Prior knowledge:
Strand content: 5-15%
Radius of gyration: 34 Å
Structural class: alpha+beta
Number of helices: 23
Number of strands: 15
Helix content: 40-55%
Strand order of the largest sheet: 1-13-3-7-2-4-6
Amino acid sequence: MYQQGGTIKDALDSVASNAYVLPAIQREFVWSPEQICKLFDSLMQGYPFGDFLFWRIEPERSADYRYYGFVRDYHQRDNPHCPDLGPMPNHQIMAVLDGQQRLTAFNIGLRGAMAVKRPYKWWSSPDAFPRRVLALDLLAETIRDEEGNRYSFEFVEEDRIGRNQDRLWFRVSDILNMQSGPDMLDWLLDKDLKAQQQKSAFRVLDRLHQVIHKEPTVSYYEEKNQDIEHVLNIFIRRNSGGTTLSYSDLLLSIATSQWSNRDARKEVHQLVDDLNGIGPGLGLTKDFVLKAGLMLTDIASVGFQVRNFTHANMAVLETHWPEIRDALIETVQLVTGFGFNGKSIRAASALLPIAYYIYRIGAPNDFDSHARYADDRGAIRGWLIRSILKASGIWGSGLDTLLTALREVIREAGDEHFPASELRRKMAQRAKSLEFSPEEIEDLADMGFTDRRTFALLTLLSPLIDCRTHQFHIDHVFPKSRFTPGRLRAAGIDEEQIDEMADRANRIGNLQLLEGAVNLEKRAKLPSEWIEAQYPEPDSRRHYQKLYLLGKIPEGVTEFSEFYEARRERLQHRIAELVNSI
């Protein structure tokens, strides 16, 4: 229920005494000096500035979390972070879930200062960050400007406080210890003001005193539920109006607060960048890296739940971070070496069992290339491709329990080989079978060019290609440009066949993998013409046609349908052999 929290002065007293604290899920203070000034102007004008959301943590649960205080003397370079209060066992905690920026703005304006870098100054320059305090010009006209502001708040350097030509800067923090009436008048009498100026200045100063000391403008909703998952969901929804928060953002904040020697946020973001810089990039995210950390270090569950991000678990994660990093880099090098990119990897979670195995064998830096790991690479490649080809979505619902089960299989199998067969059996037990029915195989044989699984299927059908050292493209055997309605009509194709032929030209029966440079050279040439030029020797030509299951290649598009049907049938047989025997 909503409750009255008293005045701004009352709220700041609670901040000063750490009666109000910030939980680790909160981010840093990010408001600019201009935003703080606008907040104080809204306060003076009597505008509502929003209620707060507090979480009452009972003493028996208070030791489960880490807490931070509010920034007071903000320095963009030297002191931008919330002070760490550490654990607070056996305390009744009032943690601020919504309202951190506003409370910090009041704390800085009424108790502290801001030091923000001057434009064009070096970060290392001693005068780049002048200390400024929030001040109110008591002589400024109280007429709304074009942005709706009525009072002249500004962060100024200390030497500008007081009478400054036609301005009278009052240090806003002085209002906290100033009594109403005589104290304010005494301050003004010293400033050599005309009677009308003194009257106007007193009115503004009195208004400031009222909104800080007298008016009960603070209201809040108190959440008493002790279930952290429930609280986090509330927190995410309350913050969704600004910069969108994800669950992993919050968990990363918790990890950051609990690591001792490394900055978790910096390490995770850097690793994501490094992983996506390998080969064509897989489009991995911090969610993937965080889940990988839980998976690889044998934390009980790989689910994104706060109970998995305990201080003890995060200590394990930090201790083993170098090995986690090495294993993920080796995994991505291996998978991109298979030819995959961000478009063809349908679910990054498919990489996690592979990463777990590589982690367990010590993340050798030549895993993707040395001959002694050739059998492992073959088993991993086949298992990965099959999981990608499954249209039913292996890596969808029940993901966390599936990953935990697969991790157990790998752990029990030992470190001698990648246990592809054992993984398949466990997946089948969980209704995630990697066996393909005749109907599924037929669907694979009809797969289209734009399907994200197409590259994986063509890779499976082209076992001799080396994607690790060469970039391969999906090529149309008969160039797609030959299948426009106009060109087909000009070739004498019947009108009722045109749409069907154009559709078939874009399916597996007319697709193959070609090295990028070769594909660019081939361009729109007909296959018979290109193959004869590329492989002038009959034996090499026959070998190429057999390797790609091309069969007899017609001279032009008039016989394309016969070519397509024959090749599609051969591909379907080959697919059936491969997907159910890997």
